[in-house]
Amino acid sequence: MVGFCETCMELEPYPSYPITSGVFLYSPPPFPVIHHSLPPPPPPPPPSRVLLSFPFNPSFFFAMDHQRSMSLLQFMNDEGLVPSQEEEDKRKKAIHKLKQIVSSWIKKVAMQHQLPKHQIAVTSATVLTYGSYGLGVHSPESDIDALCVAPFFATIAEDFFVVLYNMLKRRPEVSDIQCVKGAKVPLMRFKFDGISVDLPYARLRVLYVPENVDILNPFFLRNIDDTSWKSLSGVRANKRILQLVPNVEKFQSLLRILKFWAKRRGLYGALLGYLGGIHLAILAAYVCLRHPDATLNALTTNFFRTFAFWPWPKPVSLHEAMLLTSVDTIEIRPFSFMPILLPSSPYEFCHSNVTKSTCYRIRSEFIRGHNMTRDLLKPDFIWDNVFQPFPYSKRYSQFFKIYLSTSDQCELGNWVGWVKSRFPGLLVILEGIQGFCDPNPTEYVDNEKTEANVVFYWGLQPVDKNSLVDIESVDGEFMKIIRNGYEGSPGRMELSIIIASQLPNNAMFDDETIKGRKTCWRVIDYDKKRNQVYSQHVPHCLVGHVAPTCEAEYLSSGG
Ligand SMILES: Nc1ncnc2c1ncn2[C@@H]1O[C@H](COP(=O)(O)OP(=O)(O)OP(=O)(O)O)[C@@H](O)[C@H]1O
Ligand SMILES: [Mg+2]
Ligand SMILES: [Mg+2]
């Protein structure tokens, strides 16, 4: 078990005494433990056996459990985790309009392809929502993940990325539109009425795609291409999760809570080796399946207990949660510190960038959550403590600073997106040198600089205080990774090491203003650079203009 620092109720960064539970399968990195002000960590909290010293009164425990569930719901409300009716209506309206655009797009494409009139009349395409919106757990700042599903004749390269792109671009509701062609799941990303939308594409071997097409039905999955298959996997996974969980409402509340917890504790973001929405959704579903009658409090407590003692890298699978022995086909699993299996055929693993350091951080946070929630009778318990922002500046003595800037504000989004897509490589380089790195996912802005910028501060735990990272060699190695493939004009990148006291004032790591600090950026106006594209089906027919490719923010996931 990992100890607490008594002054700040934070877990020690690394176990300072032998681990007894067998939770950690690899040896902890050989770093000194920072005792924030008190030297040795206290012994682990007393086991829950202590509860049995009270005369056992079930109704008292039920009452306590109920009370904690109620206060958790109140906490969610106070934090604004559930979008207002007004926000919901705005999203519904945006999706409705998107469906209309897609419907008229497919007719236009059918005409451009010179399909017979009767086929043009019946052809249709639709939009299926998935991700956090599809699961009903989105927060006000979540994007809408919407899959455009169309008949086979509409190509991705031309009809989706050119014709639909241009139709969207002309709409007054649409801004900041980008084509993300290089990702495992290619997509268009834009804002619709101010809401971020991720729009990947799938083609089915049909002429008519029903509005609520059942993509778990094998009929629709016949002979589809590889990209479509990958794009559909998010929708299939979501649908399966919602079918499996015994109580959708409780699952949604639990997942909302966990996403908020992960954001507050600096653990949200698959790109930086932490947990993405899909990972948390499967972990939450696992707990719901194992405890079908549990209250919200019991589910949250069980979540922390289950994963604090999970024997990683044993995969988490919803089949196991249902006590089924195995699934039919499992892809050959690449090594992963925290493998999590998608719940729908062909049972691939969620893409993961978890590293040794981030795995350690996540597990420490599971244990912290467990230690804080395990005792139902703890007199001074308040949920607020569980969700305290992670105190980076107290925890780390040094920070790896990544300063990214462009002289033109419009180029910042693409430049930062590109560098971020290469962050997994940088993390590996830093871990190789330092052994440990905590890539804080929060993006900061240096307001003292006149140029458009985004700054990252990653926590470091040097082996000894005098050891310094050789910035030049890190810079050289990382430049090799980011140099190839960027299509725009690259911005500036400065890497440096700072100590905790040099953190700028606006990087307030330890207070509650952590919410809403994500940088907003604008995207290049592609109109200035677009190229004409002609139809492959009708010679000399101009189908539109192609946007220069914006590189994938995610190396291989559709998020
Ligand atoms: N690493 C991944 N592995 C497999 N599927 C992924 C991965 N990342 C994203 N996806 C798919 O894309 C969907 C949308 O991802 P996204 O990153 O938008 O997260 P989200 O769950 O919608 O949370 P948020 O509220 O932060 O948007 C997920 O539900 C999942 O189906
Ligand atoms: Mg999303
Ligand atoms: Mg998304």
UniProtKB/TrEMBL annotation:
Q: What is its main location?
A: nucleus
Question: Poly(A) polymerase central domain spans which residues?
Answer: 251-388
Protein family per UniProt: Belongs to the poly(A) polymerase family.
User: Pfam families, per this entry?
Assistant: PAP_central, PAP_NTPase
Indicate the transmembrane segments per the record.
Answer: 266-287
Question: Which GO CC terms are listed, alphabetically?
Answer: nucleus
Q: What is its EC number?
A: 2.7.7.19
Protein name (database record): polynucleotide adenylyltransferase
